Amino acid sequence: MTAPDRKVAGYGAILLFGVVGPFLFPNYTFQLAVLWIMILFALTWDIMGGQMGYNSLGNIFFFGAGMYICAVVQIGLYYDVAEYTAHFGAVKIELTEDQYFTGLTLGLIAAAVGSTLFAVLFGWTVFGLRGPYFAIGTLGVAIAAGELVGTWDYLGGGGGITVPIYPGEPDERALLFYFLCFLFAIFTFVFLKWLYRGRFALAINAIRDDEEKAEGMGLHTLRYKTAAWAVAAFFLGLSGGLFGNMIGFIEPLEVAFPTVTFGIFMVVMALLGGKGTLWGPILGAVVFHLIKETTWTYMLGWQWVALGTLIIVNIVFFQQGILGWAQEKWPERFGLVVEEASEDGADDGARREAA
User: Fold this and answer.
1) CA angle 203-204-205, nearest 5°?
2) Cα diameter, the chain
């Protein structure tokens, strides 16, 4: 089987599993849906951290922002949000099927657009920082957002907010949100695959390699950095709106802006699989999610120890990630050619080229 044939077979296998997965494992539909969200997390973080070299610790902000924007739109189309979120429960939402799906569709669109606008707005400020200062600055944005929303009574404050209930059977609801997660993850992958083939990828890779030289050559680095963050925010906003509806309840610190869980997970998954590649974050997300679910099921109480150990081993021994390690060990299987040292003994260095 040739390399193109293996690639087509791989795509087919992924799509087949995505379609039949919830029917083969009906008891794990929610976990499979979360797997697709984890893949989306890893892919979007890698836009900044892997392709552009800006390690953001605050991307989870866009996830939470999308979650709240979607909920506000869904409720606000038919009820007063402030009255609905009042702690004494003044309003009970009852939506028809048409109202529910109209609100969900418009809410997801608003979540994606709103998160993108937040990325552009904050980009003017945080992109004045570089290196660890940028990472800490973005982390501060995410933490501050969770604390501020927790004091905002319009959004339910620390008590959270309940999203409209799906007007159908629980099994139908589970399948609906599973396939939406699946489609969003596939859409993210296809879009990034297209994006990385053009000038945009060359520009953000140049910023990663040497931003000063890129600016000296006339590259408008701020424009590309903002665009990269906006792309990540768009998909994270979508996933946030979707996840909020999946679980049915939004709480600011543990659900919408979980910096110590999902916020760290997206970084770890990209590093585990191999950042700066298209398939590395996907591989890392799958491996990490399987380990996470296994430890949460069979090692309750020790799950954080297991995940912490995984992170340490990854950082210390496999900094290039699983895909990077595999490419070094079997370059020919990835269509890479490694030049040998010259005959006179001078080592010109191993240069890799895409076949």
Assistant:
1) 90
2) 84
- Backbone angles phi and psi of 249, in degrees to 5: -145, 135
Quote the DSSP letter at residue 249: E
Reference 126, options 240, 226, 21; nearest CA is 226
Pairing between strand 249-250 and 336-338?
unpaired
pLDDT tens figures, 33-77: 999 999 999 999 999 999 999 999 999 999 999 999 999 999 999
| CB-side neighbour CA atoms (13 Å) of 250 | 31
SS3 342: coil
Return the C-alpha torsion angle 257, 263, 264, 267, nearest 10: 180
Q: Say if CB 33 and CB 207 are below 8 A apart.
A: no
CA dihedral 339, 206, 232, 147 (to 10 degrees): 120
- 325 touches 271 (CB < 8 A): no
Spatial distance between the Cα atoms of 200 and 57, rounded to a whole number of angstroms: 23
Query: In sequence order, what are the beta bridge partners of 250?
Result: 161
Cβ atoms of residues 286 and 35 within 8 Å? yes
DSSP character string of 24-57: HSGGGHHHHHHHHHHHHHHHHHHHHHTTT----S
Of residues 94 and 119, more confidently modeled = 119
**Token pair 């890799």 in the structure block, residue:** 352
pLDDT digit string, tens, across residues 143-155: 999 999 999 989 9
